[in-house]
Write a structure and sequence with these properties.
The structure holds 2 protein chains of 2 kinds. Chain A has a domain at 2-21 and 52-280: Lipovitellin-phosvitin complex, beta-sheet shell regions, CATH 2.30.230.10. In chain A, 44% of the residues lie in helices and 24% in strands. Chain A contains 22 helices and 14 strands. In chain A, strands 1, 2, 3, 4, 5, 6, 7, 8, 9, 10, 11, 12, 13 and 14 form a 14-stranded antiparallel beta sheet that branches. In chain A, strand 3 (75-90) and strand 4 form a beta hairpin. Chain B is mainly beta. Chain B has one domain (50-334). In chain B, 3% of the residues lie in helices and 67% in strands. Chain B is built from 1 helix and 17 strands. Chain B has a 6-stranded antiparallel beta sheet with strand order 1-2-3-4-5-6, with no helix packed on it. Chain B has a 6-stranded antiparallel beta barrel with strand order 8-9-13-14-12-10. In chain B, strand 7 and strand 8 form a beta hairpin. Residues 1-43 of chain B have low confidence and may be disordered. The chains are: A alpha+beta, B mainly beta. The interface between A and B is large, with 141 and 140 residues.
Chain lengths: 589, 335
């Protein structure tokens, strides 16, 4: 996830410059606050300088969270224990590192209580000079769910510094993301209210603060006497959302001398780290204990029901991810021709999407087997090209298939090599480069138009900027079809020259080439090409080209409303073609 | 959020949206110039004198909805007589079906199938079918004819694919919540007919279907040394048809000399019937837990029926005198 990576980069840089906005309502109080600092759970009431090291502060904690999916079953999780905190380091840029440890943790999950020693690991977290939680450092082996509990504790106790102001605002971060908070102080009592969250990174997940209130009582020494947070958050999108109500209470129970140092061998984790790793739990839930035989049987019985077929297909993907033997067994059934052809194509697709070594090997055997039906070998090659992490043996299989005298298998394997190069680019750049070089060399040797078109499309699948010279050459071909294939192959290249070529090819004499240029733009940022698209939406002679532009502008109007909406409005009102006008109007309803 | 009311609202919002079609024999003349259409200047280079196009698009429940799906369909027949820069009479035709989904406000291409034919009279005809999955070209099937002898076309395939797959886990306090959205289905195409160096006669049937599976699962797995892991999950999931679209085209565009060689005549035919279905499905809640014994439980909350339509988008056939003097009996007939 882009956000997680950005945060990680920031942390690597020592957190210097981490943007924090804070706005004191009381300007007279806010004046002269320079050098004051907040902390966790110290801070807001503290007016002295750097936090003192050497003391461990003990808090009894109780977290009780209940989550209700819309119309669903409640899920309850509670954690109790004693949480100790102590300053272990203060950096040059006034970043403070706190050592934390949860002692004797107990979990209650759906009413069943148990000890949870895995949570009893020392970890650290860092605070900015204003008390904001910047990052956490966990033992590498600590699982994601335990990290979530320990992060939630640190985030709950987060108190931004308000100096001596009676009220102030701050931007803070917790496991969901960045939020705006409002503070109010009455003597030693502080109240914090979360106002609103930003969206979860790049994810289309909205967060609504239904209720939020944190009561904080401060001690004379600047550490908190108690923190009591109550809040309800609604998280999700449209029909799929959950509501989480949580109460977290921290009460100071004593201090003692801190003798432990910061543990070694920790890894840094962003406060709002998002997990996108495939989780066995999801797959197991999807699979629900079914075997390959069960799923093949279900597939046969639900052919007329698209939703049930698609769901069964997803369960098959889960099965192949979880169970290498099942993937191998599926491959054997394909080789033996035991599957109905309609089930076989689902199994081939599912193996490719599972993408495990066993699944790739099973597919490779099918592609290699000349005795297997040609359509299945082709579907196998297609699936191998789309697998997330192609293995070296997969590439060898596709390379061999691309040399096959069977032209359909050969062209499909060639396209698949392009797709595999794109997927390898991050994990094995050298292998990806070799594949692109190989495809470029083949294009150089190809003389037949259809071969050149296939190779151009394969190169287009790679998204590698090094293909640009070859595409430029092909864009000058006398063949409309070659120019069209070259134009569409610009779509994934992350280079401004590709935008310039797309714009140039909008002036091609052939409408097939011009629509291919619009197609290439659909996969890209539109700001560099939007002015040219606007011009062609008005002036292109061919209604199919104008329709393609209007559709693109309409679908992505929210991204660049100032540039794209006028295209749609003009087409709706003034295009000479009734179809184009009709299509444009659908985006303006 | 109230899932039931949202689903019902989505279903109620469905209204039949048959694609419209128009025929432009001469794109410089529009039968309905109102409301003040602008006249595009021609691009440089020789232009076709014969053009017939179809452009249609539909979205459910609407093209501005955060959730939904749609299709776009386009087809065209065109011919350019030989002249400066065009050594031979040139015939072109293409048809495409594009399926897309809108998932929480984002637009995602699911699949696209495009068939393109290009003929230079009495020299060469190229016909190709290309399939794309989520922006990746996965299949291209070319046919070439360089003689007057007809080459038969016979092709048909289908593939199962997940077109869109996104899963993310966020911590709402200490509770992990995993959101998943997957658009899964099938993409297929068929092509039958024949080609020679004077054109093509083809029936092509691109089709695609995609179902959306989305879920929010609350809970995780908490591992206890020596005892193993305890876990519990609860959530809800929805499985709906995003779209099922089938758009068979029958296309015929051939060139022949008539009137003892004094004229070059086109025979053309383009018909298409679209079948489109969307938003059938169910919404269910589920729970599972393993705490000294496992339990699994689920219940369907709503079964809902969506929308389906079948309609002829385009049906045109006739003859057209591309150049020279054709027989006086040759007229351009629209049906």
């Amino acid at each position: 996830m882009r956000r997680a990576l950005a945060s990680a980069a920031l942390l690597t840089a020592g957190v210097v410059g981490f943007a924090v906005t804070r706005e004191a309502d009381d300007s007279s109080s806010a004046a002269g606050e320079t050098g004051r600092r907040g902390g966790l759970p110290v801070g807001s009431g503290r007016s002295s300088g750097v936090l003192a090291a050497g003391v461990e502060h003990r808090y009894a904690i109780s977290m009780d969270h209940r989550s209700t999916p819309a119309q669903g079953e409640a899920f309850a999780l509670a954690v109790d224990g004693e949480w100790t905190l102590g300053v272990v380091a203060t950096g040059d840029s006034r970043i403070t590192t706190i050592r934390a440890e949860l002692h004797d943790p107990r979990i209650r999950l759906r009413g069943v209580a148990t000890a949870a020693p895995r949570l009893a690991v020392p970890y650290t977290f860092t605070l900015g000079s204003d008390g904001r939680l910047l990052a956490l450092q966990f033992p590498r082996a600590l699982d994601a769910d335990s990290r979530m509990v320990l992060t939630a504790l640190a985030a709950t106790a987060q108190i931004s510094d308000g100096g001596t102001a009676a009220a102030w605002s701050a931007v803070e971060t917790d496991s969901l993301g960045t939020y705006e908070a409002r503070y109010a102080r009455t003597g030693a009592a502080i109240t914090k209210t979360k106002l609103a969250y930003n969206k979860v990174g790049d994810e289309p997940i909205a967060i609504r603060v239904a209720t939020s209130s944190t009561a904080i009582a401060m001690r004379e020494d600047g550490w908190a006497e108690s923190i009591e947070q109550r809040e309800t958050l609604d998280v999700g999108f449209d029909k799929i959302s959950v509501s989480v109500t949580g109460t977290t209470v921290l009460r100071h129970v004593g201090d003692r001398r801190l003798i432990s140092l910061a543990p070694h061998g920790l890894e840094t984790s962003a406060v709002d780290a998002i997990s996108t790793a495939a989780r066995d739990l999801d797959d197991r839930e999807m699979l629900d204990g079914a075997t390959l035989a069960d799923l093949v049987l279900v597939l046969g019985s639900v052919r007329s029901d698209s939703n049930a077929s698609a769901h069964t297909y997803l369960r098959m993907v889960a099965l192949f991810r979880l169970d290498a033997d099942a993937a191998r067994g599926a491959g054997e059934q394909l080789l033996a021709g035991k599957l109905d052809p309609r089930d076989a194509q689902a199994v081939l697709g599912a193996l490719g999407e599972a993408g495990t070594p066993a699944a790739q090997q099973a597919l490779a055997k099918v592609v290699d087997a000349t005795a297997v039906a040609e359509t299945q070998r082709i579907a196998g090659a297609l699936s191998l090209g789309l697998t997330t992490t192609p293995a070296p043996s997969t590439i060898e299989t596709l390379q061999a298939a691309a040399r096959s005298p069977d032209l359909d298998l050969s062209s499909t394997a060639t396209l698949a090599l392009g797709n595999a190069a794109l997927r390898l680019a991050n994990s094995d750049a050298a292998a990806a480069t070799r594949l692109v070089d190989e495809l470029l060399a083949r294009l150089d040797r190809a003389s037949e138009i259809s071969d050149r078109i296939t190779l151009l499309r394969a190169l287009g699948n790679t998204g590698d900027p090094r293909i640009l010279p070859a595409l430029e050459l092909a864009l000058g071909s006398p063949s409309d079809l070659v120019r069209a294939a070259a134009a569409e192959s610009l779509r994934l290249i992350p280079d401004g020259r590709a935008d310039a070529l797309i714009v140039a090819m909008l002036d091609d004499v052939s409408p097939i080439v011009r629509t291919s240029s619009v197609f290439a733009a659909t996969n890209r940022r539109l700001d560099p090409v939007a002015p040219a698209l606007a011009s062609h939406a008005r002036d292109d002679k061919d209604p199919a080209v104008r329709r393609a532009i209007v559709e693109l502008a309409g679908q992505r109007m929210s991204e660049l409303p100032l540039l794209l909406r006028p295209i749609v409005v003009h087409a709706a009102e003034r295009d000479v073609d009734a179809d184009v006008r009709e299509i444009a109007k659908k985006f303006l309803v | 959020m109230k899932a039931h009311s949202l689903v019902v609202a989505a279903v109620l919002a469905l209204t039949p949206r048959l694609a419209s079609a128009a025929i432009d024999d001469n794109p410089q003349e529009d039968p309905t110039p109102d409301p003040g259409p602008s006249t595009p200047p021609p691009p440089s280079g020789p232009q076709p004198t014969f053009v017939k196009t179809l452009n249609a698009m539909s979205c459910l429940p609407s093209c501005t909805a955060d959730w939904g799906a749609g299709y776009s369909i386009g087809a065209k027949l065109a011919a350019t007589p030989a002249g400066a820069g065009v050594p031979k009479d040139k015939l072109e035709g293409w048809g495409e079906l594009d399926g897309f989904a809108r998932i929480n406000g984002g637009r995602y291409s699911l699949f696209k199938v495009r068939v393109t034919g290009l003929a230079e009279a009495r020299t060469r005809t190229d016909l190709s079918l290309t399939a794309y999955v989520a922006g990746a070209a996965v299949r291209t099937v070319p046919f070439v004819a360089q003689t007057g002898t007809y080459t038969p076309l016979f092709y048909g395939e289908a593939w199962s694919k997940t077109f869109f797959d996104r899963s993310v886990t966020v911590g709402v306090g200490p509770i992990p919540v995993t959101f998943t959205a997957k658009a899964t289905g099938e993409l297929g195409a068929s092509l039958t007919g024949r080609i020679s160096n004077v054109g093509f006669e083809a029936s092509t049937g691109p089709w695609g279907k995609a179902s959306l599976f989305a879920s929010a699962a609350v809970g995780g797995q908490y591992c206890v040394d020596y005892l193993g892991c305890i876990g519990a999950r609860a959530g809800l999931s929805v499985n709906v048809t995003l779209l099922e679209a089938t758009a068979p085209f029958n296309t015929n565009l051939t060139w022949s000399l008539v009137n003892r060689g004094w004229g070059a005549q086109l025979n053309y035919n383009l018909t298409s019937t679209l079948t489109f279905k969307s938003l059938d499905g169910w919404l269910k809640v589920f729970a599972s837990a393993c705490l000294g014994g496992c339990l699994d439980w689920d219940r369907k909350l709503i079964n809902f029926t969506g929308f389906a339509t079948t309609g002829t988008l385009f049906n045109v056939a006739g003859k057209y005198c591309l150049s020279g003097e054709c027989s006086p009996t040759v007229v351009d007939v629209l049906q």
